[in-house]
Amino acid sequence: MIELNEVTKRYGHSTVLKNITLSIGEPGIYCLLGRNGAGKTTLLKSIAGYQNITSGTIRVCGRKITTSTLDTGVSYIENFARHFNLPVRKLLRIASEVSPDYDCGFAGEMMDRFELEGKKKFSQLSLGMKTMVSTIICLASGRDVILLDEPVLGFDAIMRVEFYDMLAESFQKHPRIIIVSTHIIEEIAKTIQKLIIIDRGSIRFSGTLKSLETKAFCVSGLQGDVEAATRGLNVLGRDTAGGLMTSYIFDRPPEPAGSLEVRPMSLQDFFIQMVGHRGGALR
Amino acid sequence: MTSVFAVVKRLLASNRLSFIITALVVLCATSSGDTVLSNGNYTWLLAVLSPFFIVFYDFPKLMRLGASKRDYFLGCLISYGFLAFCISLVNSLVHLAVDPAYPAQTVINMMDVCGWTENGIAIAGIQQMCFLLLVMVFLHVLLSMQAHWYGWLTDAALAAIICVFTPVAPLRSVLSGFFRVIMLNGSALPHIGVCLLLSAALALAGLAVLKRKTL
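Output (structure tokens, whole complex):
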């Protein structure tokens, strides 16, 4: 449904997206991970048609996306989005009027769950509540592609949990492509099905969480044993400390041996290794 | 069309400040002497103020609420048409009902100055509406371009045209000829036709600008 073909975006001399080719066909909740400045927002804004790319093509449901696309079928919300300074209930009503497939029931339910005061004006809301209003508007829009850029910024721990539940419920009700960019990796792992890692403008990984469960491992033990066990395997990175070594592999698990400890790699460790953590004595 | 009308409703509702400023000016403006300006003229202020709010304030917010560029574009045109109609109606009513209340003074209403009232008040109202539509669409396009280099180029070109055409007599006659066609025109049909054609052309230019607009 989303097709990116050799997408490059430059701002002056700086290349933010480098020749990205990516296909997202199946509905699902996708997590877009990347360090600050990796190109996440640029990628999402380009898919939403908020800005043009320098070269390549982006297609959503077969429709070419540029700023010229008058109706993209994509709903995108950025963190700290500013809305009309109106009471929340009125804001949601306007959103329902301008989006033909808007899910009023879902929006109302979420308003109650997050105890959003319908009479309170948007500017009077806390940062977290403002983001929540934006997220509800985006998820209730009924569009086939939903892009949420750092939605949990400003949320406390309870709100984050509620947000992940809301995401899952929204997807269950209306299966479609939902891409969420975030830095809080471990928390979202229970909600997402697929993962996209972007680093310095290039896609480093795109796949299911299941593939991580079966292929991403940490192998720890004496340096010699670890090196021998991981020889020929796809090693993402290594940490060494005092003759001990941890190897991060994305491959079949190595055969068990004397000092070796093989455990599944956490999403956070996988991300850190994918984006080029060099390792060191302190880790 | 429901979403387009929802956009129209929002554009008009968030234009409240323009309505208030215009109403205050219309109600509070006074002039003295034998010749006075009709207060109805000040209703044109709404046509000048509205595009500022619609372009700079409403566009990004409507997009974030999920409106499409298509709905925004159509919504703007309908809003400008509606505003032009309302302004024209109010000024025509002022011209009919309030202006004659100054029997000892000469009251100048732009509808008279432009020669539109020679065709009767109804036709004059339509001429005024078409002219105001042209003004609003022109301002909308000009303001939409300000974020781009070609907007500044257009500003410079317009300033240059005014500066060069005004002091040079043959060019001045071209400039005044242009204003005689779009504004100071007593011939109703050609005037309405020119205003609508220019509005349509400018709306197309506005669509091209909208298509390049980023968020």
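Chain B has a mean pLDDT of 93.
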